[in-house]
Design a protein that fits this description.
The complex is a heterodimer. By secondary structure, chain A is an alpha/beta fold. Chain A contains 9 helices and 10 strands. Helix content of chain A is about 40%, strand content about 25%.
């Protein structure tokens, strides 16, 4: 059963049509890499999934529940959207850590705010906060940053910041974790440590969608690869198929340019 | 010698008016500026343009003129409203003029501070399921504060010295008091007023530096 089903997503900015009817589905535990040239709509697609953009057409279902339908305004109410967002986690290209909080607080903040809505929050406050702290520490050790809990974001490297961002995105236990070019703002030396963390998550069967320009990484970690160009999915399949034996001329062109580099 | 002490006493007493005006202005203009800032960023167009026009008028005309209009305006226009008679009326009118003027300057600083926060900070809060309110108070507010402390500090220091403009509607502030002596040929009290301002601004500078240092543990 598909954990995520995307049907007929379209999105325009002004007269520019960025997404032209996108359909795909994702199985639980599956890792999907989205590749394609700049401006092909990859990032916009991720932003639609995370409700940062509102698609003009189409629907999004998670676990067979329609969480967004362009035809149904009831699915777009602000209060509803906030809860539904938690199906997804998003790791940004520029990390977007909160600069005034420590590494640990960056990871725990959202969970702490969410816990305030729990009916037992007042009685159980201490236990709840302790649990959140413990989970934050566990996640940070998972990304190899146990020794940086009390650092502020500006004190650590870009690669470390991105690993904090990954831990932060995992804190609310999303069904699907999305990455928007997670290593594009990093120099090559720091790229490896972030990719290693993502690979680690893949091995733990985390369901992920990764927009990336790292072709070797996509081939290595993904179960399925989608090649997008000009707002449509040109080709999709296993990494072996898409990288080893692309069917479409456009895919061949794109991959040939990467091989040359 | 006795005369010197008497003069210093009277200068100090009149400087209290400057201090009172300073404190009341800050007390009301800092929050009022926030309201104007939100108004001028409103998605409701008429409110936005009303606020921006208002700020333009207030920042575009001299404070001295605003003091005169606010104090004499009601009487000249035969309005039913009038300021209380005597010194308290002059002081209240001056305070109102200062609050409006400074709230407009503060509002632009707030607006600049809020708009300078990268959109990624809001988006990071959104994807973590935070409400708009939580994003404002838990994510952006402190970053805004850090960014606006230096420009607000500048305005506050300007305000200290601007309080002497209240004399234009005959508030007996320190320079007006000193002026009365210089009219009689005694010049030194006028120079002495400078010391009051210097000391006040010096203390404020120490306070502002302390706040800046307190916020230096993170970078925006």
């Amino acid at each position: 059963m598909a954990i995520l089903e995307v049907k007929g997503i379209e999105k325009s900015f002004g007269s520019a049509k960025i997404l032209k009817s996108i359909d795909f589905s994702l199985e639980k535990g599956e890792v999907m890499a989205i590749i394609g040239p700049s401006g092909s709509g990859k990032t916009t697609l991720l932003r639609c999934l995370n409700f940062l953009e509102k698609p003009d057409k189409g629907s999004i279902s998670v676990n067979n529940e329609v969480i967004f339908d362009a035809m149904d305004p009831l699915t777009q109410r602000e209060s509803e959207v906030r809860k539904k967002r938690l199906h997804f986690g998003l790791v940004f290209q520029n990390f977007n850590l909160f600069p005034q909080y420590t590494v640990l607080k960056n990871v725990t903040l959202a969970a702490e705010l969410l816990a305030k809505e729990r009916p037992d929050y007042k009685q159980e406050k201490k236990a709840i906060l302790k649990e959140i702290q413990e989970r934050g520490k566990m996640l940070l050790s998972q990304v190899g940053l146990s020794d940086k809990l009390d650092c502020y974001p500006h004190m650590i490297s870009g690669g470390q910041q991105q690993r904090v961002a990954i831990a932060r995105a995992l804190a609310l236990d999303p069904d699907i974790l999305c990455f928007d070019e997670p290593t594009s703002a990093l120099d090559p030396e720091l790229t490896g440590e972030v990719l290693k963390v993502i690979k680690n998550l893949a091995e733990r069967n985390t369901t992920m969608i990764i927009v990336t320009h790292e072709m070797d990484f996509a081939r290595d970690v993904a179960d399925r690869v989608i090649f997008m160009d000009d707002g449509v999915i040109v080709e999709q399949g296993s990494p072996q198929d898409v990288f080893g034996d692309p069917k479409e001329e456009r895919t061949k062109q794109f991959l040939a340019r990467y091989k040359k580099d | 010698m006795n005369e010197v002490i008497v003069i210093i006493g009277r200068l100090s007493e009149s400087f209290m008016l400057n201090c009172k005006l300073f404190i009341l202005t800050l007390l009301f203009a800092l929050p009022l500026g926030m309201l104007i800032a939100f108004g001028s960023m409103s998605r409701f167009r008429p409110l936005k343009w009303l606020m921006r026009t208002f700020v333009w008028i207030i920042r575009g005309t001299p404070l001295m003129l605003q003091l005169i209009i606010i104090f004499y305006g009601p009487g000249l226009l035969n309005m039913s409203f009038s300021w209380p008679s005597g010194n308290s009326g002059r002081f209240v009118a001056a305070t109102v003029a200062f609050i409006i003027n400074y709230a407009c300057y503060f509002s632009e600083i707030y607006r600049g501070g809020i708009e300078s926060i990268p959109v990624g900070q809001y988006e990071a809060g959104q994807v973590l399921g935070m409400t708009k309110r939580q994003i404002f108070f838990n994510v952006t507010l402190l970053q805004v504060v850090k960014r606006i402390v230096p420009p607000i500090g500048n305005e506050v220091i300007t305000l200290v010295k601007d309080t002497s403009l209240a004399r234009i509607i005959a508030n007996k502030e320190i320079i007006m008091m000193a002026g009365e002596y210089s009219n009689k040929g005694l010049i030194w009290p006028l120079f002495a007023t400078g010391i009051y301002f210097l000391v006040f601004v010096g203390l404020l500078t120490i306070l502002l530096n302390w706040v800046e240092k307190k916020l230096s543990y993170f970078r925006v």
